[in-house]
Each structure stands twice: as structure tokens, then as C-alpha cells.
Amino acid sequence: xxxxxxxxxxxxxxxxxxxxxxxxxxxxxxxxxxxxxxxxxxxxxxxxxxxxxxxxxxxxxxxxxxxxxxxxxxxxxxxxxxxxxxxxxxxxxxxxxxxxxxxxxxxxxxxxxxxxxxxxxxxxxxxxxxxxxxxxxxxxxxxxxxxxxxxxxxxxxxx
Length: 159
Fold this sequence. Notes:
The chain has a domain at 123-154. It has a two-stranded antiparallel ribbon. The chain contains three helices and two strands. The relative contact order is 0.04. The longest helix is centred in the middle third of the chain and has 9 residues, at 82-90. By secondary structure, the protein is largely without helices or strands. The chain has helices at residues 31-35, 82-90, 137-145, and strands at residues 8-10, 16-18. A hairpin with a 5-residue loop joins strand 1 (8-10) and strand 2 (16-18).
């Protein structure tokens, strides 16, 4: 049988305080034999993180599931390099299709303004009864005509 005892030290006011000595696993007789095969061992760290680990895509050198790639042009890299974009475009001979775009020939980069289209991240004005915006002025007038019903709290129930 083994006795288990606390280690106490006497403070200046004669009160006792428990303390824990610093030790090493090698300093505990029989621990290796006792623990061997009994304690589950597993992952101690994940990509340099320990404890409760929450990984982001970048922690495992991956892209987020929801992400975008820029479209490659002759002058800018995107989902592919600009030089690869040029090579792909050269695979199509002029006889096979387009010879100009909106009156332009050669290397053509088009933007929304070139074809009178809205930019990808554009906004809409709020509609009024006099001017359309995100919805038509007629729909705004109908929306404004709806009766607003006010609710009044008469009692609160607390569970």
C-alpha cells in the first residue's frame, strides 16, 4: 500500500499552504510501466497549433470553399496566366469566328462600360413615387399605399 501525502509549507504567519514540486516524468518511479498502453495517445498539435484547434482553409494551404478567381486577360493573370490566355485565343483562327469586337481588332480587353453594361459591383437608387430605382415607381407607390398596422405590447410573459 502507498500513502499519499500533501506537501505543505509554513508561511511567516504560521499558516500552512500546499505546494506542488516541479518534477519530470522520468522522476516518477514506475510511471512508464504503469502508463504504457493504458493512456490514449493522439494528435498533440495540428499545423503548429495545440489545444482546442479551429482550422481555417489557409492553415492547411487550401482555398476557402467559397472563393472567386479573376478572369485572365492578355495583360493580367487570373484563373490562368495572361500568356496562357493569349495562347488559347491564338488557337482559334480568324476564319472560325469573330474578327472584331465592337469595332476593335487585335488584342481586345472589354469592360462593362464598353458595352453599356453595369459594373459587377453596382448599386441601385432607392425608388420614389416619382422615379424608379431598385423597384419601379409604380411598385413604390403601391408599397407606400399599404396600411401600416401598429402592434402594442399588452403583457410580457417571462418563462
